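[09:14] KT: can someone run the structure on this one? pasting the chain below
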Amino acid sequence: MKRLWIAVAILLAMLGGTLGNSWYLNGLIADFTHRLTSAQELTLSDNWEAAIRLTEQVVDNWVEHDFYLHVMLPHRDIDDIHLTFREVQEYLKLEETDQYTAANAKLIAQLGLLGEMEQLNWKNVL
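[09:31] RB: done, structure tokens below
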């Protein structure tokens, strides 16, 4: 009977870790997407410098969490997001509204998919 309780405790710890990871990752992604959306709104009012600073803050925060992200998530997805961040930054520097808007929308969608991939739901379990 003792083995059963140990197994249950291990399963509950794993479930707790999974839920904690999902909660933490979704919080990060919500913060990143909110700030990227705010940066895009700044470009609409021709405040490109503020948009660049805000986007660079998001990139810096992303890099700060790089170890965690590479441990917990597929490397290919993380690398694709790194590349899209660079693309967004270049379009910001060039002040290319159309290309920046498209690249930023792609980045926000990639981040959303990353968070969705880690949610505990039937689609991800099955």
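[09:33] KT: thanks! Residues 2-44 form the longest helix (43 residues).
[09:34] RB: yep, looked fine to me
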